[in-house]
Design a protein that fits this description.
Blueprint (H helix, E strand, L loop, with lengths): L7 H8 L16 H4 L8 H4 L8 H16 L3 H13 L4 H10 L2 H8 L5 H9 L3 E3 L2 E3 L11 E4 L7 H9 L9 E4 L4 E4 L14 H8 L2
Antiparallel strand pairs: 1-2, 1-3, 3-5, 4-5
C-alpha cells in the first residue's frame, strides 16, 4: 500500500498552518510551525517576504494538498474519491468530505483511540479493530451508518489500549458517532453533515481545481 514516507512536519510548514499530523507534538513547543513559520526548502524563509496575491490556481492547489495531507491520502486515491463524490447526489465538495470522514482510520481517530490519523492507520493495519465482529486491516475502508467498531479482545490486553481506555471518557466525540468507553466500542450513527466537519476547509476550491 502506497503511503507518504517523508518528513511529516514539512507538510504543515508548506501549508503555513497546523494540520495536527503528529498528535500531541503539534500542541507542544516542539511543533515545527511554531519554531519555523515559513515554508521548507532553501528559499522558504525568503518566500514569506514576497509580495503579491496568490493566483486562483495556487489557492485551489494548496487547499487540495492541505486536505489530502490532513486525511493522509495520496493523489490517485484522492482523485477517485472526488469522482465518486461527483457521481453522488448533493454538493460535490460536501460529498467528498463526508467520504473522507467515513474512512476507518479517521473514525478510529475521531473516537479517540489514536492521537493522529497516521497512528490510527497503523493500528488498523496491525489488526487491532473489528468491524461488525470481523477483523479488518484496511484503513481506507468506508464505514456506513450502523457499523460497529470494537477493539479486539486480544488487543485490549496491551498496555497501549489500557492507557487509552483511561482517557476515553474525556474525549469529545462528534455527534455522528457514539462511544462506549467501558467496552472500547464505537458506532457510526449516521453520516456527518457539513456542519460537523472541520470548517477550516474550503471544499469549493477543491471542486474548482478538478473542474479546470
Amino acid at each position: 500500500m502506497a503511503r507518504y514516507l517523508g518528513p511529516t512536519c514539512k507538510m504543515c510548514r508548506r501549508e503555513g498552518e497546523k494540520l495536527f499530523l503528529k498528535g500531541e507534538r503539534c500542541l507542544s513547543a516542539k511543533c515545527a510551525v511554531e519554531r519555523r513559520a515559513y515554508p521548507p526548502g532553501a528559499h522558504g524563509r525568503e518566500s514569506q517576504f514576497r509580495r503579491g496575491r496568490a493566483s486562483d490556481y495556487s489557492q485551489q492547489l494548496r487547499e487540495k494538498q492541505k486536505v489530502r495531507r490532513v486525511y493522509g491520502v495520496l493523489e490517485r486515491q484522492f482523485r477517485r474519491y472526488y469522482r465518486k463524490a461527483l457521481r453522488r447526489r448533493g454538493v460535490t465538495g460536501e460529498n467528498l468530505l463526508i467520504t473522507l470522514e467515513s474512512r476507518l482510520d479517521n473514525v478510529v481517530y475521531r473516537l479517540g483511540f489514536a492521537s493522529s490519523r497516521a497512528q490510527a492507520r497503523q493500528l488498523v493495519q496491525h489488526g487491532h479493530f473489528c468491524i461488525n465482529g470481523r477483523r479488518v486491516t484496511i484503513p481506507s475502508m468506508l464505514l456506513k451508518p450502523g457499523d460497529e467498531m470494537t477493539v479486539r479482545p486480544q488487543s485490549r490486553k496491551l498496555d497501549y489500549f489500557k492507557n487509552v481506555a483511561k482517557g476515553l471518557d474525556e474525549k469529545d466525540v462528534p455527534n455522528w458517532l457514539s462511544l462506549d468507553a467501558a467496552n472500547l466500542t464505537g458506532r457510526v450513527l449516521n453520516l456527518p453533515t457539513r456542519a460537523e466537519i472541520d470548517s477550516a476547509i474550503n471544499e469549493h476550491l477543491i471542486v474548482e481545481y478538478y473542474s479546470r
